[in-house]
Amino acid sequence: MAEIKKEAVKTQSSPEIPKTKEASPKPKIGLVEMIMILMLVGLVFVFIFPFQQMKVDKEKEAIAQQRFEAVLPIIDKIIAGAEAYKKQDEFGAYPILIDELNLGDISTEYFSFEYSDQGPTITAVSKEAFGKKDIKVSYNMSTKSFNIEDPSPQSIPTVKEEWLP
């Protein structure tokens, strides 16, 4: 009888369930799911990073515009000096050299100025501090028009025609 009680206790307290080697369902990533994940990652690279770069480029463009707009009053000063010189000249000619205008030091940190009596033309030439060297913005006093010569217009910073008066 004691043996029967032990067996009964054994079955009631811890019934042993035989373990089978059935595979539990593992999450499988199929081809469609992989393509969806790659598309989401691709969207990040296609949209997010270019927008960040566009913000940086816009900031650089705003700085370049601000630096160039500081040069326009100097060009106006040179034009006014050349016109005053022409009125006072007995032959009604523009000056041969920019030094004849007695404007003092007109060069800035970002641009230097050249004058040519052929035309006559005032040219603002960018310096390395502007961000790109040798951008030439010319003003022809006869035609009263601007011309921009940029050696590499694809790279920034550059001078845009919208910035001109």
Number of helices: 3
DSSP E strands, number: 4
Question: In terms of structural class, how would the helical and strand content be classed?
Answer: alpha+beta
Average pLDDT figure: 83
Q: Largest sheet at a glance?
A: 4 strands, antiparallel
* Helical fraction: 40-55%
N-to-C SSE string, H for helix and E for strand: HHHEEEE
Unreliable residue runs: none
Tell me the β content.
Answer: 5-15%
- Which strand order does the major sheet show? 1-2-3-4
Radius of gyration: 39 Å
Approximate shape:
rod-shaped
- N-end to C-end Cα span: 114 Å
Q: What is the oligomer described by this structure?
A: single chain
Nutshell version of this structure?
The chain has 165 residues and is an alpha+beta fold. The chain has three helices and four strands. The radius of gyration is 39 Å and the shape is rod-shaped.
Structure write-up:
It contains three helices and four strands. By secondary structure, the protein is α+β, with helices and mostly antiparallel strands. It has a domain at about 70-150. It has a four-stranded antiparallel beta sheet, covered by helices on one side. A hairpin with a 4-residue loop joins strand 3 and strand 4. It is rod-shaped, with a radius of gyration of 39 Å. The N and C termini lie far apart (about 115 Å). The mean pLDDT is about 85.
